[in-house]
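TOKENISE THE FOLD
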Amino acid sequence: MFPDAESALVEDDRTLTSTDFMSGATEDRYPDVFRLARAEGGGRPEVRAEITGLLDRLAHHSVVLGHDTDAADFLGKLTGTP
């Protein structure tokens, strides 16, 4: 997501990778500065690999999104929802 980007499809053959999964280092919460959470958060590597393979079979689109509200309209059109 780029603040000034215009919403658009991107032509590429990107597949899921391990960086698409949240882990203890990348999850969206406050940093564990006191090391109290003690959770890696990303599951076992073999399970992530299995899930990646299953998700990769689904239809997917690579897109560029901005912070503008037209991104919601763009995604609605892309997915066929109002």
